[in-house]
Amino acid sequence: MDRRQLIAAIGSVYGTATIAGCIDGDETSDQDIEDGSDTENSTSNSDESSSSNSEEQANSEGKEEEEEEESCRTEVKSQSESLVDRSRELDGNSDWTEEYRCETGDTVHFDISTSVGQDVAVEIDSPEGHTVYSETGLSLTTTHRFNSSGEGKVRIENLGERTEPETKNEWDDRVEVDAGSQLDPWFEIEEGDHIDYYIRMVDDARPNLRIEDSSGTVQKEHSVSKVIDGEFTAPEDDRYYFFMENTAMVTSGTWDFTFQYVEEVPISTTVELAIEREYEEEVEICD
């Protein structure tokens, strides 16, 4: 039975209008279902399109990042670092040892200078313990490249070649010396040092002066005089005797005398030491 025959049969019982309304309602519902299905399909397609666009954007950004990473490169650049920069006062014949550290392939610059014109002796040891530099002077500069890493040493000595006098009173007195008697003070004097002496007659008999070494050899003499003023420089380290004699037969003499030990003391100097290392380092550069 087709649809029209079915409608006619039902219409005979309930009426054609009622059935027609039901049929129209059913047709509308079918249309609504079709429209809802279309809406869902449209939304689904929109979501898929949005997701696809997001993936494309992410892929595009990833490619841009890859392109940026690919534009970076490394270059070798020279760098410098100060290892030591200090000064120290060195007394005569004293020394100073300073350590420094470098790496394999470093180029190290050494700069040493002194004050007051006092020469210093400089020795530089590599990290391996070998002496790579030895020189004497007022201002010294040298550069060395090392093939090993570790700690090296710089030794600086004040040679004390430049000196200044330092005076110390050894004996200062007034003494009465009987006729035919003598005074015989002695001093231990180092080679090159000297004794300044001043002897003056205060009353009556006049003195003379004779200087002998420890073996009795006369080194210097002064004849009788009211005033004896001079100095004696030791030719070598020894004990030296200063005989002051009253040669008068009867008359005593009163004398003032002063003995000063004059020592040549090495002048201290201020040493300035600067050490700087140069090295190569890989640096990443991105355009």
Structural features, described:
With 287 residues, this protein is of the alpha+beta class. It is built from 2 helices and 17 strands. The strands form 4 sheets. Strands 9, 10, 12, 13 and 15 form a 5-stranded antiparallel sheet that branches. Strands 1-17-3-6 form a 4-stranded antiparallel sheet. α1 packs across α2 (16-70). The two termini are 83 Å apart.
Concise structural overview:
The chain is α+β, with helices and mostly antiparallel strands.
Determine the CATH superfamily of the largest domain. GOLD domain
Major sheet details:
5 strands, antiparallel
Structural class: alpha+beta
> Helix fraction?
10-25%
Q: What is the count of β-strands?
A: 17
- Which stretches are low in confidence, meaning pLDDT under 50 for 5 or more residues running? 12-34
**Percentage of residues in strands:** over 45%
Oligomer: single chain
Task: Provide the domain count.
Answer: 3
**CATH fold-level name of the largest domain:** Jelly Rolls
